[in-house]
Design a protein that fits this description.
The complex is a heterodimer of chains A (507) and B (333). Chain A has 507 residues and is of the alpha/beta class. Chain A has 2 domains: 239 residues, Rossmann fold; 239 residues, P-loop containing nucleotide triphosphate hydrolases (Rossmann fold). Chain A is built from 19 helices and 24 strands. In chain A, helix 8 packs antiparallel against helix 19, helix 15 packs across helix 16 and helix 16 packs parallel to helix 17. The relative contact order of chain A is 0.10. By secondary structure, chain B is mainly α. In chain B, the strands form 2 sheets. Chain B has a two-stranded antiparallel sheet with strand order 1-4. Classes of the chains: A alpha/beta (507), B mainly alpha (333). Chains A and B meet through helix 11, helix 14 and strand 20 of A and helix 1, helix 10 and helix 11 of B.
Chain lengths: 507, 333
């Protein structure tokens, strides 16, 4: 088949860690092509190479029958590739028209902008997608969906041949999604190709023609959507066998009731405004409860709700048998709950502060008397944890940003262990750390639990969940849908649990 | 990820070159101070005299005190434009109080009230700034612009726009008193700097302040009371500005609401930045702010003593800020 875009044998490494290995991607003219994969599979690296944000280490890119050597995003736009990001790069305070014609304003007498023509042209472009709005109003006065459509309209008006949409529906409601799909179909009819990146598999079956699946930096499958199933796509993404997933039902997975300590925390049908709709959980003392699910299933959101970061809109939480209304992180810490966040850089470390200051940040209220920090006790505690966790640092006053990722993560883990929480929520505790540190961190978590505390372990690594958790609660679309009990959980079983619900819903 | 660039950065700062950017960054302020002193010793007539020292200390004290407060605010990644207006407000209130009938009838109480009430009013201004910023999420530059404009207006309304002159030896001690032969306000600035340094380095408030400025989301998730910390920084800044306002009035034995603290926000921001504060927050070099204030004062003095016009002095000040910011930018690389 003749291709509009052809990327072949793409290699890319970041400081000698390979992100893409011989990856390939083909998009036909007028095709809606989906690109899917787990976190870290290489989707965004692939797109960034295509749009000139990154340079490829090896491989071949052809676009529109020409070798494409795109070295910056501006060049990508000129050659007909438009990217619609989640965070739109438009100007909310200016009018819809200005946003659409920005940089390409129709002129009169060579210098004056011909607003009449500009407004008319904008209205025409939007009308093609069935949108009829006041183009003179500021863009910011419209919903996210409309803004997204305006971004697409701008792309089309610049004669884009390929429109890349990165998670376009993640902040849209059902009706807005329908409007967006209408636009995608319209693009397709007028011969524009769409590269569609999404975590929501259902959507693909509605609008896509073909799907490319990536895993671990490689392209693992290219399928026609008409000839595949959700189960098959999940199997591709996870690197499992469809037969294995399909063969077993859920029945043999329910383990016997194992009696551990008292129930520490129970969540009953909790929901927050952030894609968490109905989530049940109970954690007993001495237990590691894993949260499994695909990206976007609400794992992190569940952790945030338990830690009081996002306010509950429904349901209730009971802590040690008493109803508990989370008031925020400070309150949760006071009630002896801790949470290691997923994004170490944005939500974990304070880069310019020392290892010592980072480690005791959550402990400060208990480390101080009359507002004064007891520095002697502080140094003693930090010393103990550096030794206990084997943190490699030249001294405790070294800025944390100079440490490796694994050591930074250990400092953050120590930050929470030092507060001696009864319940510790760990969101991707071993992401981005090397294998050695990973094993050490996992051992620390197990030791901690053995002292009679509870852990909620969020991980996108099935191996970590299966081997680390006593029980796994499977989430999907913001709902807890299944619970698996160890011993007896295998990776396959977990994959099945995640997949089966998908297929059940699809049927 | 960025391991490579980090180790490079370390290598650069460890390089033995005597005048590398690293040296400039760490000791630029001191180097500048030595250069200015050397220049003055050689070229400015009568520079090496006690009188010169007195003049400079008494003038630098107000800049230094406000710059300390500004450094706290900048540490939260904020800015406070209202410091000059708060000085005018506090300065206008004090004479009104001790010159009032009550103040005349009970001189001791009057003097005490003339210190306490203006500082309370100043702190309330800081509370207003802090609430606007932390609860209403107004950008600091806009939130403090409100009092920047209205604070001086209120001060002028209170005094009917008149210059209030007075003769009150107790109040004037703040601006003209001497301890061990050196101006009282110099000692006061030093004591305040020590107190705030202790606050930043030893207390939970100080630690939270730096964490909030360094990574606000991480600080909140670690339980830091982000809003209270920000409000605290603005209240302290306004309180210190209030003290500076009182000093200016005491020096002049007169309160002039139109001029007291005029353009002080710029001097204070410049002193904080020259002293090493980062506008993106996370650092609070208190003694750096003092050093910055001294440099700015000395540059002003040098130009004045050598007959350079005031307007030109402003340009020189701008040049210092540009240089300080340039060195800071290099630091971030």
């Amino acid at each position: 088949m003749h291709s509009l875009l052809s990327m072949k044998g793409i290699d890319k490494a970041f400081s000698s860690v390979p992100a893409l290995r011989q990856a390939h991607l083909e998009v036909a003219p007028g095709e809606v092509h989906a690109l899917i994969g787990q976190n870290g599979a290489g989707k965004s690296t692939m797109i960034k190479i295509l749009t000139g944000v990154y340079r490829r280490d090896g491989g071949d890119v052809r676009f529109d029958d020409k070798p494409a050597d795109i070295s910056n995003p501006g060049q990508a736009q000129k050659s007909g590739i438009a990217t619609i990001y989640q965070e739109l790069n438009l100007v909310p305070l200016r009018s819809v028209t200005e946003n659409v014609v920005m940089g390409y304003e129709p002129r009169r007498l060579g210098m004056l902008i011909d607003w009449r023509t500009a407004h008319r042209r904008t209205r025409e472009i939007l009308a093609r997608f069935g949108i009829d709005i006041d183009v003179r109003a500021p863009l910011g006065s419209y919903s996210t969906a409309i803004r997204q459509l305006v971004a697409i309209a701008r792309a089309v008006s610049l004669d884009a041949k390929l429109v890349i949409m990165d998670e376009p529906t993640s902040s849209l409601d059902d009706r807005e999604v329908e409007v967006l799909f209408g636009v995608v179909r319209e693009l397709k009819n007028s011969g524009v190709s769409v590269l569609y990146v999404s975590h929501f598999l259902d959507e693909l079956f509605q609008i896509c023609d073909r799907v490319t699946t990536m895993r671990d930096g490689q392209t693992v499958a290219v399928r026609s959507i008409a000839e595949t199933s959700k189960l098959e796509l999940i199997a591709d993404m996870l690197g499992r066998n469809v037969e294995d997933i399909e063969a077993a039902g859920m029945t043999d997975l329910g383990g016997g009731e194992k009696q551990l300590g008292d129930v520490l925390l129970e969540a009953d049908g909790i929901a927050t405004g952030r894609r968490l709709f109905e989530f049940d959980l109970s954690v007993r003392r001495g237990e590691i409860v894993g949260l499994g699910g695909l990206l976007g299933s609400g794992r992190t959101e569940a952790g945030r709700a338990l830690f009081g970061v996002d306010a509950l809109t429904a349901g209730e939480i009971r802590l040690k048998g008493k109803r508990w209304a989370p008031t925020g992180p400070a309150g949760a810490i006071g009630d002896r709950i801790g949470m290691l966040t997923e994004d170490r850089k944005a939500e974990g470390i304070v880069p310019d502060m020392s290892v010592r200051e980072n480690m005791t940040l959550a402990l400060l209220p208990r480390l101080s008397r009359n507002g004064q920090i007891q520095t002697g006790r502080e140094r003693q505690i930090v010393e103990e944890y550096i030794k206990a966790l084997g943190i490699k640092t030249s001294n405790m006053d070294q800025p944390i940003r100079e440490l490796s990722g694994g050591n930074q993560q250990k400092v953050l883990l120590a930050r929470w262990l030092a507060t001696e929480p009864e319940l510790l929520i760990l969101d991707e505790p071993t992401r981005g750390v090397d294998v050695g540190a990973k094993l050490e961190i996992q051992a620390i978590i197990r030791q901690y639990v053995d002292r009679g505390f509870g852990v909620v372990l969020i991980s996108s690594e099935f191996e970590e969940l299966v081997e680390g958790a006593d029980r796994i609660v499977v989430l999907q679309d913001g709902h807890s849908v299944a619970t698996l009990e160890n011993p007896g959980i295998t990776e396959d079983a977990l994959v099945k649990a995640i997949a089966h619900h998908h297929t059940g819903e699809h049927a | 990820m960025s391991d490579g660039s980090l180790s490079n950065g370390k290598a650069v700062s460890r390089a033995p070159a005597p005048l590398s950017l690293g040296t400039l960054r760490n000791h630029g302020g001191l180097i500048a101070l030595v250069l200015i002193l050397a220049f003055n010793a050689l070229f400015t007539p009568n520079f090496l005299q006690v009188q010169t020292l007195f003049v400079n200390i008494s003038q630098v004290a107000t800049i230094a005190i406000v710059a300390i407060g500004m450094t706290l605010v900048i540490a939260t990644a904020g800015i406070d434009l209202s410091v000059g207006a708060v000085m005018a407000l506090a300065g206008a209130l004090a004479p009104l109080i001790f010159l009032s009938d009550f103040g005349q009838a009970y001189p001791a109480l009057g003097i005490a009230a003339a210190f306490v009430l203006p500082l309370l009013a100043a702190s309330l201004c800081g509370l207003f700034n802090g609430i606007m910023i932390s609860y209403l999420n107004v950008q600091p530059i806009i939130a403090t612009l409100i009092l920047f404009i209205s604070g001086r207006g209120i001060a002028q309304v209170l005094t009917n726009g008149n210059l209030q002159t007075f003769s009150n030896p107790y109040f004037s001690y703040l601006g003209t008193g001497k301890i061990l032969g050196l101006p009282f306000q110099g000692w006061l600035a030093l004591v305040l700097a020590l107190a705030v340094y202790w606050l930043v380095s030893r207390t939970i408030f100080g630690r939270y302040l730096l964490a909030v400025g360094g990574n606000e989301r991480a600080a909140r998730l670690a339980g830091a009371p982000v809003r209270m910390v920000k409000i605290g920084a603005y209240v302290l800044c306004a309180f210190l500005s209030g003290i500076a306002g009182l000093i200016v009035v005491a020096i002049n034995s007169a309160s002039d609401a139109a001029r007291n603290g005029n353009l002080m926000e710029l001097d204070a921001i410049a002193a904080a930045v020259v002293g090493g504060a980062l506008l993106q927050g996370g650092r609070a070099p208190i003694f750096g702010a003092i050093l910055g204030a001294v440099i700015i004062q000395l540059v002003k003095y040098t130009l004045l003593a050598n007959g350079v016009e005031d307007e030109v002095a402003l340009i020189a000040k701008a040049a210092i800020i540009v240089l300080a910011v340039y060195i800071q930018q290099a630091r971030k690389e």
